Amino acid sequence: MGKAAQDRKPSSIARRVASGPAPLSYGQQQILIHSKVAGETRIYNEPITIHKRGPLDIAALERSFIEIIRRHEAWRTTFEWRDDGPVQIVQPPPARFEMPFNDLRALPASKREAEATRLATEDSYKSFDLERGPMYRPRLVRFSDDEHRLYITLCHIIFDGVSLYRVLLPELMALYEAYSRNETLKLPDLPVQYSDFAVWHRELVQRAMPRELAYWKTVLKNLPELNVKTDHPRPATVDYKGEMETLLIPRAVTDKLKAISQEHGVTLFMTVVAAFVAMLHRDTGQEDIVVGSVTDLRTHTELQGLMGFFLNTLVVRSQVSGDIPFTELLARVKKSTLGALSNSTVPFELLVREFLKQRNASRAPLFQVMISVEPPLAPLKEGWAFTQMDVDPGYSKFDLTLELDERPEGLIGRFIYSTALFEESTIHGLKSRWLKLLAQIADAPEKRVRDYDSSERKPAERKSIFSLFSRKR
Question: How far apart are CA 249 and CA 258, in angstroms?
C-alpha cells in the first residue's frame, strides 16, 4: 500500500542496550496471538519459489543461505510465552546447513512439475514450532541439469514483501555469484536488527496513540459488514481453509491504469482499490465499502535492508454510488487511503481491542476483504526468477484476499478465498468481471460507476498466469 507516515519527531533507531529476550513487535504479536486463537500457525505459512536456470553449485547456494541467516537475526529468532507476555529470542547462527534436496531427473519430464509441487505443498502444510524454530523450510529441487527451483516455506512472523523483493533476493544472488566463483563477498553491515525495531516502534506507538485513536474513532464508527454473496452459509467460526485463483492484468491495461493514476495524482494501488470497490458496490448494492490493506513501517533508512515483519494492517473505508464517475470514486479512495496512511502507526491489534467491543467468531475483525500490492521486483540477474504463486498456500485468513504484483508482463496476482464460503467457479467469475471492469476503466475512467458492463467475459485466460513461470527465462 505504502509507507507509514513518519513520526513528527524523527529519530534514529538505536541498538537495544539489553541482551537476551526482547519484546515482540506489534506485528509479530498479532501473528502469534491470532495463531493461538485459530489453533494453527499454518495460516501464516507462505510458500515462495526461486527459479534458477543454468548450472547450480549447491554448496555455494547453501553457503549463501547460511550467510543470510547469520546476517538477519529475525530469521534465527524463536518465540516463548513468559509470565509477562511473549518474547523473541535470537538464536546463534547455524554452523552448517544442509538443504533438503530432491533430484527429479529420473522421472518423465511431464511428471516433474506435479511432483515438485507435491513436495513443496507438503512442506507448506507443516506447522512451524515457534518455540524451537527455525521459521523457514527450504527445499531444492532439480528438474534437469540446467533447471532448479528453491522452494521455501516461511512463517510470516519473520518476513514481508520487502524482505523478499529487496533484501533476500539481491543478497542471495550476490552471495551465490561470489561463492560459486570461490570468491568472498562482504555485504554492508546492518546498523540495527529486528529486535531493535520492535523496542523502538513500541515507544513510537505510545507517542502516536492519542492523535491516531481520535482519527480511527471517527473512521470506524458504525462500521458495516460487507455482504458479498456466498455459495455456502457462513460457518459459526472461521475455519481458514482456502484456495487461490491466479490472474493477469495485461501490460496494455496496466499502462493505461498507470497513466490514469498519474493524471489524477494517485498511486496505482489507489486506482486498483477504487476499481475493486466499484465492483463490490455493484455486487452487493452497498454504498459504504470497507476493505483492508497493509502498509510498510520501514520509515527509517536503518530498516531498508533488514528482513522481518514490518507490516501494519489498515482499514480503508469508501463511500460509493452508481451515479458518480469513477474519477470521483478515485478521489474518495485517495482521501481514505491517505487518511489511513497518516494514522498508521497505531497497530491494527490495538484498534481491534479499542473499537471492537464484541468479536464475531464467523468473521475477521473490522473487514472481510483484503487488498495488497507487493513492492516492484527489481530486475533479477539472468537465469533467476521468483514467484509466490507456484504453490497454493491452502488457507485464507479473510473471506477474500486480492494480492497483486507488478512485473514486466503486467500486474500478476491471485485471489485467495475461503472455500467454506465460495466455490471455485464463483471466484473465477468474480475475477472475470473485475478484469473486464479494469479494462473498461482503463479506456474510459470518466464513466459513471453504474455504466460499466458488469457481465462476465469468456473464460479464456485461466492458464495464462502459469505460462509466466513455466516458460524459459
Answer: 12
Residue 71, pLDDT score: 97
Q: Which residue has the cell 519527531?
A: 9
Parallel, antiparallel or unpaired: strands 77-82 and 45-53: unpaired
Report, as an integer, the average pLDDT of 344-373.
93
Q: Is 344 exposed, middle or buried (0-12, 13-18, 19+ CB in 10 A)?
A: buried
Average pLDDT value for the chain: 92
**Contact assessment for residue 16 and residue 22, using Cβ atoms and an 8 Å cutoff:** yes
451515479: which residue's cell? 323
Which region among 18-22, 396-400, 424-428, 438-442 has the lowest average model confidence (pLDDT)?
Answer: 18-22
Radius of gyration, CA atoms only, the chain: 22
How distant is the alpha carbon of residue 61 from its chain centre? 25
Q: What is the DSSP string of 318-361?
A: EE--TTSBHHHHHHHHHHHHHHHHHT-SS-HHHHHHHH-SS--T
Alpha carbons 391 and 406: distance in angstroms, whole number: 19
Across residues 407-414, what is the average pLDDT? 92
pTM of the model: 0.92
Percent over 70 (pLDDT), the chain = 94
> What would the DSSP string read from start to end of 165-192?
IIIIHHHHHHHHHHHTTT----PPPPS-
Q: Is 149 helix (H, G, I), strand (E, B) or coil?
A: strand
Rounded to 5°, angle at Cα 25 from 133 and 136: 25
Cell numbers at 286, concatenated: 452497498
What per-residue confidence (pLDDT) applies to 17?
Answer: 78
Residue % of the chain over a pLDDT of 90:
84
Give the β-pairing of 147-155 and 45-53. antiparallel
| Helical pair 26-38 and 194-219, crossing angle rounded to 10 deg | 80
Peptide bond into 134 cis (omega under 30): yes
Which residues lie across from 418 on neighbouring strands?
A: 242
Could you tell me the sign of the dihedral formed by the alpha carbons of 125, 129, 135, 138, in that order?
negative
